[in-house]
User: Which sequence fits this backbone?
């Protein structure tokens, strides 16, 4: 397919009968897309800043390009929850959803967009959950998806992740639109529906939260396998990468990045803990405290991150977050090391350690017991099972690094992308004395 830069997607155009998206099993043509973008742009004439929140990715694409051609700044909340929208209400003049974007109009003349002037505001949150605004220009996003197209072969795109954040927006929508490949309008919650709708040579845009839930599925036949699987949001467990290769027939390509930089580095795990390799045009350095500083071709200056890394040739190994090192009883304690030590115990399948605020702050841990652990928990009860885990940590952790409270859960709380927020884990301990 012919590549079209995003600023010229509507001004240059494609044949009217070319398929842009698959929506509820029906093809949506470029001619219809163009007419609906014209209608959305007419609706938004005079709007300064609009929030765009859609479940349907086709409707979202119509709204996104309609707002761009109306000259409006786009605000992308991470989700459409009432509390999220209320917290951002001062950030936009109008709110657009699926139901407002179904008004095609007579064909209009589309100019080439001023890519550096048009802005998209993303709102992201770190481990504390506090929202952070990140502004990117259309030109930055256009250069970013052009890099992806130079690295990987585009194909029809299906996804388990939303388009409301930069990873979903660029990989599942903007890249296929620029490359002339169709995308699925639905965001699949479960693998069964995604695999039932999987087109030939598909690109699957997913996350650790979904790739960790492949167990029980039958391996795909060779002719039905995707050509690429992407994962972003958090490092993928080596076991999940291996299982994806077994069932889907393709090792996931992991993306390391941020809302500010987009994709920064990538890896495929053949053996486990492979280093991350920088994508073309990116540069890194290690700050004095061991944190990663990133220089991306899509941003103007160095970004100083909270990621602790170990440098290797052409890349790095990720060693956790600097904001997950706590000072307890005068000692520096790595929460990531405590979690890793718990995972080495035969009774633990997953673990999250957090520091509850207070005087003094308290170290606590949420644990998903393994099958063997569930048997011990049932036999011993929660208090004694917690003591068993503390005993298992004694070989590697000082007393200050021993959790004081425990929660035993079926699954750790996760954001849709597989990223875990300390605030969500802390909520499990609400009311703990």
Assistant:
């Amino acid at each position: 397919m012919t590549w079209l830069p995003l600023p010229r997607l509507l001004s240059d155009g494609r044949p009217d009968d070319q398929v842009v998206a698959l929506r509820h099993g029906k093809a949506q043509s470029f001619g219809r897309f163009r007419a609906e973008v014209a209608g959305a742009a007419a609706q938004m004439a005079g709007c300064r800043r609009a929030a765009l929140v859609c479940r349907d990715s086709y409707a979202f694409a119509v709204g996104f390009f309609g707002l761009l051609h109306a000259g409006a700044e786009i605000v992308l909340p991470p989700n459409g929850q009432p509390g999220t929208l209320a917290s951002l209400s001062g950030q936009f003049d109008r709110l657009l959803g699926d139901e407002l974007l179904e008004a095609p109009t007579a064909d209009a003349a589309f100019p080439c967009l001023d890519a550096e002037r048009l802005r998209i505001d993303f709102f992201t949150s770190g481990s504390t959950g506090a929202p952070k605004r990140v502004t990117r220009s259309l030109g930055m996003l256009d250069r970013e998806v052009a890099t992806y197209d130079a690295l990987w072969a585009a194909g029809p795109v299906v996804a388990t992740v939303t388009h409301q954040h930069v990873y979903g927006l660029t990989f599942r929508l903007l890249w296929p639109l620029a490359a002339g490949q169709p995308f699925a309008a639905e965001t699949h919650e479960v693998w069964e529906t995604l695999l039932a709708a999987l087109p030939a040579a598909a690109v699957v845009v997913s996350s650790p939260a979904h790739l960790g839930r492949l167990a029980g599925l039958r391996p795909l036949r060779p002719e039905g396998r995707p050509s690429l699987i992407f994962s972003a949001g958090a490092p993928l467990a080596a076991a999940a990468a291996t299982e994806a290769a077994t069932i889907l027939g393709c090792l996931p390509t992991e993306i390391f990045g941020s809302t500010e930089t987009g994709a920064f580095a990538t890896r495929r795990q053949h053996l486990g803990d492979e280093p991350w390799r920088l994508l073309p045009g990116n540069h890194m350095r290690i700050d004095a405290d061991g944190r990663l500083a990133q220089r991306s071709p899509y941003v103007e200056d160095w970004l100083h991150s909270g990621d602790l890394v170990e440098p290797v040739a052409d890349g790095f190994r990720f060693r956790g977050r600097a904001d997950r090192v706590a000072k307890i009883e005068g000692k520096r304690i790595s929460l990531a090391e405590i979690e890793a030590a718990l995972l080495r115990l035969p009774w633990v399948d997953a673990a999250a350690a957090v520091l509850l605020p207070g005087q003094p702050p308290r170290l606590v841990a949420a644990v998903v017991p393994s099958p063997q652990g569930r048997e011990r928990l049932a036999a011993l009860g929660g208090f004694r099972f917690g003591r068993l885990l503390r005993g298992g940590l004694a070989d590697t952790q000082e007393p200050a690094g021993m959790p004081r409270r425990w929660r035993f859960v079926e699954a750790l709380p996760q954001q849709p992308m597989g990223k875990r927020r300390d605030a969500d884990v802390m909520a499990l301990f609400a009311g703990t004395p």
